[in-house]
Amino acid sequence: MKRWPVIPTLVVAIAIVAMIGLGFWQLARRQEKEAALVQLAANVDRPPVLFPAGGTGDDLLFRKSAIDCLSVTDIARQSGRTAGGTPGWRVIAACRTPTAGIVAVQLGIASDFNTAPAFSGGPVTGYLSYAPDSQPLITDLFNRSPKRLMLISDAPPIGLTANPGPDLSSVPNNHLAYAVQWFLFAGVAAIIYLLALRRRRP
C-alpha cells in the first residue's frame, strides 16, 4: 500500500478550508446587504443631499440630489430600459461641476443609439444611482470600497424618454448564491481528491 501523500493532501486541505471560509464570509455579507437594503428603501423619501465631492457613497444610493452642470465634456451610451420597460440606450453625460468635479449624469433613454441629446449644461435634479462599472465580476466580488455614483435626471431633455425611477432590484444581493458556490467547490474538491487517492492505491 502506497504512503499517504502528505504535501498534496495538505495543499488540498488548505484550499478546501479556504473555500469554506469564503462561503461563511459570503453569508455574513448577505446579512450586511439585507440591512443596507432596508436603509436604501428609506432613502427614496429622505431629503435631498449634495452630490458627494468624492463621487462615491453606497449609503447615498437613491437619495434625491442636484448638480450645476457647467459644461458637458463627453456623452456615452449604454443599453438600458425606459420607465415602461422598453429597451433603449441610456444617454450618460459627463458634466463638469463647480464642487464635485466631473459627474456622470444619465439624461434619459434614447430609442436610437445615434440620438444626440439637446443638452449642453445647466441645473439637473434627480436621484443618485451607481455609475456604469466595467470591472470584472471577480473583482466586484471582493471589492468592499464604495462604488462611484451618478445622477439620474428626473427631467430628460428633448428627444429622450424619462429615466426609470429608483429600483431596489438593481442592487444585487447574490451573496447566498456565492456562498453556496464556495461550499460546492469545497465539496467537489474533496470528492475529486478522494477519488484520486483511491485510484492510486494498489
UniProtKB/TrEMBL annotation:
Q: What is this protein called?
A: SURF1-like protein
- Which organism encodes this protein? Sphingomonas floccifaciens
Q: How does it sit in the membrane?
A: Multi-pass membrane protein
Q: Which family does it belong to?
A: Belongs to the SURF1 family.
Xref: CDD domains? SURF1
Q: What UniProt keywords apply to this chain's record, in alphabetical order?
A: Cell membrane, Membrane, Transmembrane, Transmembrane helix
Residues spanning the membrane: 7-28, 176-196
Pfam families linked: SURF1 (PF02104)
Cell compartments where the protein resides: Cell membrane
InterPro entries xrefs: Surf1/Shy1 (IPR002994)
Determine if Ligase is one of this entry's keywords.
Answer: no
